[in-house]
Structure formats: structure tokens, C-alpha cells
Design a protein that fits this description.
The protein has eleven helices and 15 strands. By secondary structure, the chain is an alpha/beta fold. The protein folds into two domains: 5-126, NAD(P)-binding Rossmann-like Domain (Rossmann fold, 3-Layer(aba) Sandwich), CATH 3.40.50; 128-291 and 316-342, 2-Layer Sandwich (Dihydrodipicolinate Reductase, domain 2), CATH 3.30.360.10. The strands form two sheets. The chain has a nine-stranded mixed β-sheet, covered by helices on one side. The protein has a six-stranded parallel β-sheet with strand order 3-2-1-4-5-6, with helices on both faces. β1, α1 and β2 form a beta-alpha-beta unit. The radius of gyration is 21 Å and the shape is globular.
Length: 345
């Protein structure tokens, strides 16, 4: 690699523009190639984020053949994957993959196999993992300060029609799979691998929208390998112009209440019960944890550092596949009237 990492983009829509802005704030990276079937989108992205200097392509095979890239951002709708990511991995490109990594489990496994076989760096676009408060709690769980994690309770609330692809079950997969996966990923991040899930979901609030054919309300209960339990609810019928993610994590020594991924109250219970607190007149210590770099910018910084071998990525292709298995398991349970679904080890 040269001094600058040469970056390509496959897909130049809304989320790609978020990454383009984040890349502009990082030294040592240059956007050199863009691909979008809607070539006008690629050209607009080029003007906005690459000073018009990047190559633009409507065909990914052509883009890959032209070469000149070290890493690729894959920003496709989950149902649009057709082997491009596998080809990029085989070509030796490091990968930033937007979530979910696919819509079909077979495609997800194909991508996982290709990435592992190629040995390239792969980071998944679970940007909430990069919020400073999330990083802090994860470190406390990893080194034992938080004690045993027992419960995760999360919510994702918004109210928007989103793009036409998002409302198409063959392309977006629905709110549970395409959007609430961020919260399901956080549950995995803190509690470990999921072993079973039961869920309910439905289109309760957008039935009058002719092309809205995905779930807009869902709730799931998850059993994790260590015995911990999670519950996650999502609705796309909440407050307009607000995308609200909140969650609580209960561990033996700390209970963390996140008003958002970047703002939390950590209550350091240190294993006390109410009886101990009353008897000794001890109030649990409360700590406000907030601030830090924008999670998208931190995700970008982490990806570039991982490609350079300077640090590990905070999410990898295993997380991409396991997260996909979990949300597809929840969707399968919902379609089966809430029947529990066992998940792979």
C-alpha cells in the first residue's frame, strides 16, 4: 500500500454519503473509485466527496478489473448482493460491509467463507459499537469490572417511509432485519452469542401504504449462551423525524442505562442488594458517561487502523454472519407465530 489507503465504494446512496463525510475527516485515505448502477449517483458522490477525481463505474466487474484499490466500502441494500463482495475479497480488498451483510443466510455464509479464505480485514457497519459509552461498558464486561451480564433491554423507534427498496421485503427485509439489527448487535456485543429467539412482528401502522410490505412493529426475547436474556422492541410508527435507540444493560456490579449509544448513566451497584444499601446507608454511585467522537467517524478511524494493522476492528465478519442469523431467526419466529427458533453455535 502507498501512503494513502485507496478506497472504493460499491453503492453510493445515503449511507455511503455518511461514510464519505467521515472519510474526509481521516488522514491517509483517498476515494479513488465508485460504482453504482445509477451512474448519476456515483457522479454526484464523486463531486461531493472525491473532488471529482475518482473513477466512476456502472458495472462492478469493470471497476474491480480496473484495480487501484486497497479497500472497499460495500453499501448495497441487503437483498442486492450477487457475489460482488466475494469477488472483492478474492481480489484482496479489505472490506467495510454495511449491515446486514445479506438478506439470505446462504449469501451471508458465502460472504463469510470468502472473507475468511482471503484473509482480508473486514469490519461490519455496526457503528453503535464505536460510541464511547458503549466502548466503556464493553471494556468493563471484558475485564470483569462490570460483573456477569444478565439482561439487555433495547428499543429502536422511528417513523419514516424510507426508500422504496427498504419497503420491499426482497430488498430491505423489514425494520427488524435491516434497522433493528443495530440493537440486536449490541445485545450480542454485551451478552455473547444467542442460542434461541422468539419474536412477533407485523405491519400494524402502514397497511394503507400500498408499497409498504414489511414489518413496522416487532418484539423479541433472546436466550444467550451464558444464560443471559435479552428483549428488543422496534417500531416504525413512533415520533416523526426522530431515530431513537435506547437500551439498558444489567450486570452484577453495574447497571447501565443508555439514553442513546452516546449518552448513558452507569450505576455502580457493586453487587449490593437493597437490604445492604439500607442497612449500611450506602447509595450506589452514579456516573454520567457521554461524549467522544461521532460513532460513524470512530468506525471509519477503526476500519482504517485495522486495515493498517494498528488495531483490531470492533466488529468482524463473524459478527456480520451471527448478527444476520439472529435477526433472520427472529423474523422466522415471527412468521411462525412466535415459535422459538434455535440458533447455531
Amino acid at each position: 500500500m502507498g501512503t494513502d489507503l485507496r478506497i472504493g465504494f460499491l453503492g453510493t446512496g445515503g449511507i455511503a454519503n455518511v461514510h464519505g463525510r467521515a472519510l474526509a475527516k481521516q488522514p491517509g485515505a483517498k476515494i479513488v473509485a465508485l460504482c453504482d448502477r445509477a451512474i448519476e449517483k456515483a457522479r454526484a458522490f464523486n463531486a461531493a466527496h472525491a473532488g471529482g477525481a475518482a473513477r466512476t463505474h456502472a458495472d462492478f466487474a469493470e471497476m474491480l478489473k480496473a484495480g487501484g484499490m486497497d479497500a472497499l466500502y460495500v453499501c448495497l441494500p441487503p437483498g442486492a448482493h450477487g457475489g460482488e463482495t466475494e469477488a472483492a475479497a478474492k481480489a484482496g480488498l479489505h472490506l467495510y460491509l454495511e449491515k446486514p451483510i445479506a438478506l439470505a443466510l446462504e449469501r451471508g455464509r458465502s460472504i463469510h467463507k470468502a472473507v475468511r479464505a482471503a484473509g482480508v480485514t473486514c469490519v461490519i457497519g455496526h457503528h453503535y459499537r464505536h460510541a464511547a459509552a458503549v466502548v466503556r461498558l464493553k471494556a468493563m464486561i471484558a475485564d470483569g469490572r462490570a460483573g456477569t451480564p444478565a439482561l439487555f433491554q433495547g428499543r429502536f423507534l422511528c417513523n419514516a417511509l424510507h426508500g422504496a427498496w427498504w419497503r420491499d421485503p426482497a430488498m430491505g427485509g423489514g425494520q427488524l432485519v435491516e434497522q433493528a439489527i443495530h440493537v440486536y448487535d449490541l445485545a450480542r456485543h454485551f451478552l455473547g452469542e444467542a442460542r434461541a429467539v422468539t419474536a412477533f412482528a407485523g405491519n400494524l401502522l402502514h397497511a394503507g401504504q400500498p408499497d409498504y410490505r414489511v414489518d413496522d412493529t416487532s418484539a423479541a426475547t433472546i436466550l444467550f449462551a451464558g444464560g443471559a436474556i435479552g428483549s428488543i422492541a422496534a417500531s416504525n410508527g413512533a415520533v416523526p423525524r426522530e431515530w431513537a435507540t435506547s437500551f439498558d444493560v444489567v450486570c452484577r456490579h453495574v447497571t447501565a442505562s443508555f439514553r442513546s449509544p452516546t449518552e448513558a448513566t452507569f450505576v455502580h451497584t457493586d453487587g449490593m442488594t437493597s437490604e445492604t444499601s439500607w442497612a449500611k446507608s450506602i447509595e450506589p454511585r452514579r456516573e454520567e458517561v457521554a461524549g467522544g467522537r461521532d460513532p460513524y467517524e470512530e468506525a471509519t478511524r477503526n476500519f482504517l487502523a485495522a486495515v493498517r494493522g494498528e488495531e483490531a476492528g470492533r466488529s468482524d465478519i463473524d459478527d456480520g454472519l451471527r448478527g444476520l442469523e439472529l435477526v433472520l431467526g427472529a423474523l422466522a419466529s415471527a412468521r411462525a407465530g412466535g415459535a422459538p427458533q434455535r440458533l447455531e453455535a
